[in-house]
Every structure is written in structure tokens, then in C-alpha cells.
Specification:
The structure is a homodimer of 197-residue chains. With 197 residues, the first copy, chain A, is α/β, with parallel strands linked by helices. The first copy, chain A, has one domain: Rossmann fold. Chain A is built from six helices and eleven strands. An eight-stranded mixed β-sheet of chain A has the order 6-7-5-4-8-9-10-11, sandwiched between helices. Chain A has a two-stranded antiparallel sheet with strand order 1-2. In chain A, helix 4 links the parallel strand 8 and strand 9. The radius of gyration of chain A is 16 Å and the shape is globular. The two termini of chain A are 16 Å apart. The interface between A and B is medium-sized, with 30 and 30 residues. Chains A, B: Pathway: Purine metabolism; XMP biosynthesis via salvage pathway; XMP from xanthine: step 1/1. Chains A, B: Its EC number is 2.4.2.22. Chains A, B: Converts the preformed base xanthine, a product of nucleic acid breakdown, to xanthosine 5'-monophosphate (XMP), so it can be reused for RNA or DNA synthesis.
């Protein structure tokens, strides 16, 4: 997605250790037109699939998620993230480890919002090791629903998330795929493959 | 806003102690069409105001916030909420007490996203005691910006937030105003005033 690629190049800030900061348009300040285009692009890529709900995780997944849900004309659910939890019978809970923050969170979704047979598109802002996406997928499957696919705004393709998700049988669509952040330079997978000048 | 009022009546669940649960369309599952209408209604109510940014707070403010920002054609910023924080020079921090959760959070916004002179519309999902709205307003003012107004999706008018904000000089626009949740029944301010049958 060229618009997104340009935005990443222009406004993305490479911090040490493989961290890309995009807080001017995705993680803190958000560009609503870009978010709408992201929603349209996911809808285009998953056209032909019957999708009944979009599932994302707070907080940065909500804006791309709601725009995708608007285009697909289905509800959005956002999973909540918390450090620890009093369990109740009404919620699905999965543990998700964040390599960036070096902590385990529990992510939760109310049982009443995913019915058996539901066909769910998972949307998230970043894909690195795939922990959050796997956690969301396990919640959908616990509920007796199926994961139609996983839509990612920015993939760090030098980390194993995409490969692991595909090996587990999930369809992954990433709008931009970053091959490397080495030496403070952002390069994309397509460039490395020689598809772009 | 009639659409929203109907949704609150149909799907809102009154819990004890003045708590209204609207997690089927606003706080956990979200209705994207309703969120778009909320964004359009805030834009209509604040038309004529020059607005340069929308500011909200994670997580439930993000969906109404991004739809408002889309209609207004300006960026959205969402403040982050955390229990405690390593201070840095790059962020504005305000303490916000949550009466519902009985805890104090620190809310933060990066300094680089609010410039002096910025004209900011604050949007949030709920207004009760006004703590979050005051915290967001103080951040805008610390930055040398001005608060054009405060747009609230659901106001609990039996709590003092609206009055306190207006006394402090802020314009508040609430899309629905709940007069009472007593005996498990949702009644609206307009009903009590005899404006509706």
C-alpha cells in the first residue's frame, strides 16, 4: 500500500533494537484519512470472504479496526489488555507476551460477542512475533468461530510472526512489510526482492 | 441524538450504583455506523469553530474520536493512560482519578503533537465527574492551545461533570444525557423536562 509506505518512510523513526516509532499517524496521533484507506484496503484484500466481525486489540488497533468494520458493514470488537485479572465465566482469556514491553498481559473478550460459526477478521497495527495475533485467534477458536484472516498495518518481516501464523494455517495480509531497520534505515520487503526501484 | 438514545434504551444494561454498561456498541463491541453518526453529529454541533485537532483518551474514546477527526478533516490524538510512569521531558502528564475504578491514572500526551495556538476539540465516550475531561483540557492548556469544546457520547447528568466543566468555562455537548438510572430504568434529561412524551 503505497500511501502507507510513503508515510512510514517520511514519518517513521527508527529506534534501537528493531523498534519503529510511528506515533505521528498510527500509535498516538492518528491520521483519519490513512485509517480509512487502511480499512478500504483490508476490505479489498478480503473481498469474497464472508466476514461477520472484526476483532482487534486496544489501543492502536481500534482506529484501523473501526474503519475496516465500517467498510465491511460488521461490528468491531476490541480485546482488552490487562496485567492480571479476576477471572469470570463470562469472558475468554488468553495470555500474550509482549517482547517489546517484556511483560505478559491477559487479553479478554466477552463471550457474548463471538457466537459459534462467526467468521472473524483479525486486524492489528503491528506484527512482529505474532503473540497478539495468536492470542486473538485462540479466542475466536475457543468461541467456535473461525479466523478468516489476519490484516496487519505494518509487519516487521525480519521477525517471525508472519511465518509462524502462516505455518499455523492463517492467511496474513500486511499492508507494508519491513525487511530491515538496520543502521537506522527503513527498507521494505519488495525493495529487497527487487520489485521496486 | 435519537439513534443513540434508542441504542442506549435497547442495549444499555443498568448495573448497581449508577453504572450503565454499553459494551455492545461503545465500550467493547462497537457499532461502526453509530460511531460515524456520532462523528457527524459532533462536527455539526461544532461547525463554525475552527478546530485543528481532536483529542481523546484510550480506549473507548478512540472510535468516536477517529470518526469525528475524519469528518473534521484533522488528526486525532489519543492520550495514554497508565498507573505510574517514568517521567520524561517530552510528554505532558496529568493525574486523573477514576471514581468507577477507584484508582488514579496518569494520562500522557507527547509534547510534539499539540502546538501553541492549536484549537482542540476533546471527545470522550462518557462524562460523569469530569475528571478525564479536565485532565485532557489541562494538557491542551499546558501546551498553549485552547479547548474549543468537549464532545461527550453519553453523559450521566446526575453526576456533576457537566456543571463543573461549564463553570470552568468549557462548552460541553453531550449526545445523550441520562437523568437517572434508578430502579434499573434509564431516563433521559429531556424526558424529565417534559420535552418528549
Amino acid at each position: 500500500m503505497e500511501l502507507l509506505r510513503q508515510k512510514v518512510l517520511k514519518e517513521g523513526i527508527v529506534l534501537g533494537q528493531g523498534v519503529l516509532k510511528v506515533d505521528s499517524f498510527l500509535n498516538h496521533q492518528m491520521d483519519p484519512f490513512l485509517m480509512r484507506e487502511v480499512g478500504r484496503e483490508f476490505t479489498r484484500r478480503f473481498s469474497g470472504e464472508e466476514i461477520t466481525k472484526v476483532l482487534t486489540i486496544e489501543s492502536s488497533g481500534i482506529a484501523p479496526g473501526i474503519m475496516t468494520a465500517l467498510e465491511l458493514e460488521v461490528p468491531l470488537i476490541f480485546a482488552r489488555k490487562q496485567k492480571s485479572l479476576t477471572l469470570t465465566e463470562d469472558i475468554y482469556v488468553e495470555k500474550v507476551y509482549s517482547f517489546t514491553k517484556k511483560e505478559t498481559n491477559e487479553i479478554t473478550v466477552s463471550k457474548k460477542f463471538i457466537a459459534p460459526g462467526e467468521r472473524v477478521l483479525i486486524v492489528d497495527d503491528f506484527l512482529a512475533n505474532g503473540e497478539a495475533a495468536f492470542g486473538l485467534a485462540r479466542i475466536v477458536e475457543q468461541a467456535g468461530g473461525s479466523v478468516v484472516g489476519i490484516g496487519i498495518v505494518i509487519e516487521k518481516a525480519f521477525q517471525p510472526g508472519n511465518r509462524l501464523l502462516q505455518e499455523a494455517g492463517y492467511r496474513v495480509e500486511s499492508l507494508v512489510r519491513i525487511a530491515s531497520l538496520e543502521d537506522g534505515r527503513i527498507s521494505f520487503v519488495e525493495e529487497e526482492e527487487g520489485l521496486l526501484s
